[in-house]
Structure formats: C-alpha cells, structure tokens
Write a structure and sequence with these properties.
globular; alpha+beta; 7-stranded antiparallel beta sheet; binds glycine
C-alpha cells in the first residue's frame, strides 16, 4: 500500500520542482556509470563490459571527461577519489592541487595589505600544481586491472576524431565566448572561426590528443618530469607566474583514510581534508541525528529551520577550522563527537529566530564535475575533480591543449575576505608553499550492513556538501527513489553571506513566509550543481540517476 509519506513526497516533487521530467532511475544488474557527459559515461560502461573493474572505468571516464567536458573534466586540475573495494576496504585518494613553492600568504595582497582580486582567477598566479594525472596513475597502478594504454585509448580517440558538442556544452561555450577569445591559442581550439561552437558541431583537439598520447606512452612522468611540465612552466614564466619545474617534480598524491560517520543505520564514507566535504557533511548529519526531522520536511518550517541551522554551524566550523592536514591540525574528533553534535542541536532547539545581519550577495557557479561507478565485483568509486571555475583559469600552455585550474582562489587569500563562492575563511586555509587549498568536494559512498548502498557526489563549490546532504536525506528520511532524490529542489545555507540560496519553487509560498518570519532571507538561484548517483536496491539492482539539471549527462549500465 502506498504510504502517506510517499504521497507527500510525490506531491512535493510535483509542486516544488520546476521540472516534470521522468523520475525513474536507470536499472542495471552488472555495472553502472553516471557522469555529466553521456559519451564519457559510455566509455566507462565499455570498460566494465570488457572486464575492467570500477577503478579502471573511473580512470577511463576521468580522461574521457577531460576531452569531452573541457569546462570541468580535466588533466589541468585536481580532485579526490573515494573507493570501496570488494574486500571491504575503504580508500581515499587525494590528488588535490598544491600551491607553487614560490607562493606566499600575501600573494594576492598589495603593499597596503589590500586584496588584489584581478589575479586570483584568471592569471598564471591562480594556477596551482595539477594533480589529476598522478592521481589517476596512482589509483590505476594500485587498484586497477587494465593497462594505462587501455583506459586512455577512448579519450585519445575522442580528442583525435572529435566529440559532438551537446546543447548544454554549447550554452557554456556561448556564456564564456569572450574569455575563450582572449588568448589566440585557446580560441583556435575552443572557438570556431571566432564564434562559440554550436550543438551538433564537432570539436577536434589534436594537441590534447598528443598530450594524452605522451601520458599513455610514458606515464605520469611525462606530465611531471617531461615536456608537459616544461611547457606549462615556460608559459607561466612568460606571463608573470611563479610555477617552477620543482613544483612538478615534487608533486605527490596521498592515500588517506576517508572520513566516516553513521546516520540512521547507514555508514557514510566521504572525503578527508584537504577537503572539508566529509567533515562538514558528517557534522550536519550528526546534528540532525539529534533533531526530530519529520518525514515531510519540504513542507515543515521547523524541519527546514533545523536543517538550515545545522548547515550554518557546520559551515562556520569549516571556514574557521579546516585546512590541509600537512600544515594544520584539523579538530576532526572534536567536530564529529556526539557531545559536540548534541550541544549544537540543543542550541538550535533553544533559539528558533535567526540572526538577520545581511552581507554581500555572491554569485555561485556550478563548476567542477562528479561521476559515480559500481561494478559487478563489489567495487565502487566516487570521483569529484575540478578546474575550480568554468574552464579554470581559461589559460592553456601552448602546445599542451588542456585548461589549467584557478584553484589558488580556494585558499583564504586574505583572512576574512570572501572568495568567488562567498566563503569567508581564515588562517587554517592561508596560502603556504606546497599547501593544498581547502576544498568542498564530497565524493561519497554509503554502506548499509557493510554493503554499498549509494555512490554519489556533486559539483557546485560549497553547495556540493549541502547537495550531497539533501540527496541523502531525501533517500533516507523521505523514502524517495534515487532519481527523485537527485532531482528534488535544493537549498543551501553557509551562514555567510546570510542568505539561504533556494532553487526557484523549492519551497511553497507558505513555507517561504514562515522562514521569512523566522529571520531567513531567501535568495532564488538558477544555477545548481548536478548530483550523479547510484543506489543499490534490496535485490542488488544498480539504480542510476543523472541529475535533471545536467540533461546531457547519463546514467548507463548493463
Ligand atoms: N574548487 C571548488 C572546491 O574544491 O571546493
């Protein structure tokens, strides 16, 4: 019999989302890949079908996205990979970029100690040492079963022979046409006769194909100790950057223990510092475990009030206390202790009305990209990687053919000054030579009774963590299927700026009025990240969900 909870969920979806798209997940038995680009998803499925494991497929998809999703997929950036192996082991691979050795804490400040914003996102000074190629090589060597040549071949083919631009790609090529026109080399690849590529047209990336071929032939050392590093350093030197060959030679990848916590019988395995994702997610879940969240929270003022306050506390801790563990002590045990969660939830219950101070509005982007994979051997992989902004720094060192990140903006370039995401951070995340900037990426795997239940993550800067949180709550508390959970409207609150970002129509008018009465300022926002997720049902079926917000992505299985 259909429960009241389910009826409410369906009504919520009907009236509170701005799409009436299909809410049925894709079902498969043997393997499932979900990414923001259909052609890259297909590459992953082909590897699984050919007998590769989820790690092999993850590397193949990562390289394919570097070709077919140039805004966000990358070899010029970095990220994180959360792995659950068939033998039960949970692994977290940190391939986050590092600040150049010549970077200083005042790199983006002038002599008057004022922040100079121009260089933070669009110059060689904004480029941190990329980690993706060594990250992929480390994961493949340790946990993969295919050769580097096998997993890179599809990406090389797509670069050489071209990929067809999707309507969503075309939208972003249009939006960023001016940026892509700034440098003639970038324009020669990503503009067609000076105009943005249109949907249906093909982009051929000959230089990128040659770069990928070099990596395929010689491994990560071609990138870090060979001509690729030399080309980047030489371009950086010409343009006033501070990257050096030593930065590339010394770059390293780390295998770390993931952050774990439990919520209502589910075990959450997520990102460890230098990402704030796992800690912030777990802090919010721990707080919410102590609060009576009802089953129809899209309608209940009190539930939304509790969730928003859990977000506020967790982001405050994120921004003040977290950073690269090689440079600072992250108070993980304290932030994730049950006493701490109980104390915060008591405060939340005691104080319903909220602080109404208003700070400056900051625009949010849906950059970065996430993909989720599961195989028929019991392995699951969750990867989020990024160039930071769309097309990163918008710079490509000739003749490498790939965009370089602008990840230096994820540092607190000056304590107390907001970055592009409006995050006001402190000294724990200041710039130091060789340090990794604090991230919000949250590649997550959820277990139930030791078995994989969900694989998920999202792009979206700081909104990544709340997108993962809401998707989990939608499944665990709301009984939504994974596609409904991913597609349901979202909201995000990071305390500072003191606005609650909401997707248009996320809340009913009555709920909006009640939240205003409590002191929240709601700010409708149109651009949100795409959660790419897999759920494993009680029969062992893989249910894949590509976010409706990224219609050119796909969940495909076999
Ligand atoms: N560049 C966005 C993040 O790592 O959170």
């Amino acid at each position: 019999m259909i429960s009241i909870k389910r009826v409410l969920t369906l009504l919520t979806l009907l009236f509170c989302t701005h799409s009436f798209a299909d809410i049925t997940p894709v079902i498969a038995k043997q393997g499932m890949v979900v990414s923001e680009q259909r052609v890259a998803t297909q590459v992953g499925v082909d590897i699984l079908r050919a007998g590769g494991n989820a790690i092999d497929a993850a590397i193949a998809v990562g390289y394919a996205l570097a070709v077919t999703y140039p805004c966000c997929g990358n070899i010029g950036g970095g990220g994180f990979m959360t792995i659950h192996l068939a033998d039960g082991k949970n692994i977290f691979i940190n391939f986050r970029e590092k600040a150049p050795l010549r970077a200083t804490s005042t790199l983006f400040q002038d002599s008057a100690d004022t922040e100079t914003t121009d260089d933070i996102t669009q110059s060689y000074l904004s480029v941190a040492v990329p980690g993706t190629v060594l990250g992929f090589e480390t994961a493949l060597n340790k946990y993969g079963t295919f050769t580097r040549e096998q997993v890179m071949a599809p990406a090389i083919k797509l670069a050489k022979e071209g990929y067809v631009v999707t309507p969503y790609d075309a939208k972003w090529f249009g939006v960023y046409a001016e940026d892509l026109a700034r440098d003639p080399y970038v324009a020669s690849i990503f503009l067609k006769n000076g105009k943005p590529y249109q949907a249906g047209e093909k982009i051929i990336q000959t230089d990128l194909a040659a770069t990928l071929q070099l990596i395929s032939n010689h491994g990560a050392q071609a990138f870090y100790k060979g001509s690729i590093a030399k080309d980047i350093v030489s371009a950086s030197e010409k343009e006033g950057g501070i990257l050096s060959l030593a930065d590339f030679e010394q770059y390293n990848v780390e295998e770390l223990a993931p952050i774990t916590c439990s919520y209502k019988g589910y075990q959450i395995i997520s990102s460890a510092p230098p990402s704030s994702g796992g800690i912030t997610l777990c802090e919010m879940l721990n707080i919410l475990s102590n609060l009576p969240i009802s089953s129809s929270r899209y309608h209940q003022t009190q539930d939304i009030n509790y969730i928003l306050e859990a977000m506020r506390y967790a982001y405050r801790d994120r921004n003040e206390k977290l950073g690269d563990p090689n440079f600072i002590d992250n108070p993980i045990a304290e932030l994730l202790s049950s006493d701490y969660a109980k104390k915060i939830s008591k405060n939340i219950k005691a104080k319903r009305f909220v602080d109404t101070t208003i700070e400056k509005d900051v625009k949010e982007l849906s950059d970065t990209t996430h993909y989720s994979i599961i195989d028929n051997k019991g392995n699951a992989v969750s990867v989020t990687y990024t160039l930071n902004g769309f097309f990163g720094s918008k710079l490509i060192a000739k003749p490498t053919g790939f965009f370089l990140n602008d990840e230096m903006d994820d540092f607190a370039t000056k304590a107390g000054v907001p970055n592009r995401f409006g995050l006001i951070q402190h000294d724990a995340n200041n710039i130091q030579p060789g340090k990794r900037p604090l991230s919000s990426m949250t590649p997550t795997i959820v277990l139930k009774d030791g078995k994989v239940k969900m694989v998920l993550g999202s792009p979206g800067g700081p909104r990544i963590i709340t997108s993962v949180l809401l998707t989990l709550l939608n499944v665990i508390d709301e009984d939504m299927n994974i596609k409904e959970a991913v597609d349901a409207s979202r909201y995000h609150f990071q305390g500072n700026p003191n606005f609650v970002d909401i997707e248009p129509l996320a809340f009913s008018f009555a709920l909006q009025k009640n939240l205003h009465y409590l002191g929240y300022r709601l700010l409708p926002q149109g651009t949100w990240g795409a959660v790419e997720a897999i759920y494993i049902d009680h029969n062992g079926n893989f249910l894949g969900a590509n976010d409706r917000r990224r219609p050119d992505g796909a969940a495909l299985g076999y």
